[in-house]
Design a protein that fits this description.
This protein is 47% helix and 23% strand. By secondary structure, it is an alpha+beta fold.
């Protein structure tokens, strides 16, 4: 099946779909036209399925380190298996990098400290929040169908059908 062209050149179309897919996964809901929503839905569901299939693929690794008294201490650490790392990189290659917003009463140094390890918060949200949630749904017998499209009516001006695309 061919992709919809959405009346745009291919570079603009790809950028639009990446941007709106990133916005959907970051915010959980977007308002857009019906044809765009149908394209975004298929992309978002593939990314979520990839995360659901790989989010549990970790192993516990034991490492030896030294403490302040030069004594050897064994530390257990969770590490991604190669398949999960590959899935994470595939998702990062498609989605844009969104920065977490600074909180109202947060200083610049506190913001930097809070966000220093989280370089791709959308990907982390996908693996930590959405994947376990939708995996539980899959165990109940509901495969796929992670999004819902609700019609809002025609847009004023060009009468394009507007919809809300949201994650279930």
């Amino acid at each position: 099946m061919a992709n919809r062209k959405l009346g745009k050149p291919s570079d603009q179309r790809v950028a639009l779909l990446r941007n709106q897919t990133t916005a959907l996964l970051w915010n959980g809901k977007i308002i857009t036209t019906e044809t765009r929503a149908k394209e975004i839905r298929s992309i978002a569901e593939k990314l979520i399925t990839l995360a659901v299939n790989e989010y549990q693929n970790t192993e516990t690794v034991e490492k030896e380190t030294y403490n302040e008294k030069d004594q050897i201490v064994k530390v257990e650490k969770q590490q991604d298996l190669p398949s999960k790392l590959h899935a994470r990189r595939q998702i990062m290659a498609y989605l844009y990098d969104v920065q977490e917003p600074k909180k109202q009463d947060e200083s610049k140094s506190d913001y930097k400290e809070r966000t220093k390890d989280n370089r791709h918060p959308v990907v982390e949200k996908l693996f930590r929040e959405y994947a376990p949630k939708y995996d539980a749904r899959a165990k109940e017998g509901k495969k796929g169908g992670y999004t819902r499209i609700t019609k809002l009516g025609p847009r004023r001006g060009d009468a394009a059908e507007m919809v809300v695309l949201e994650l279930i």
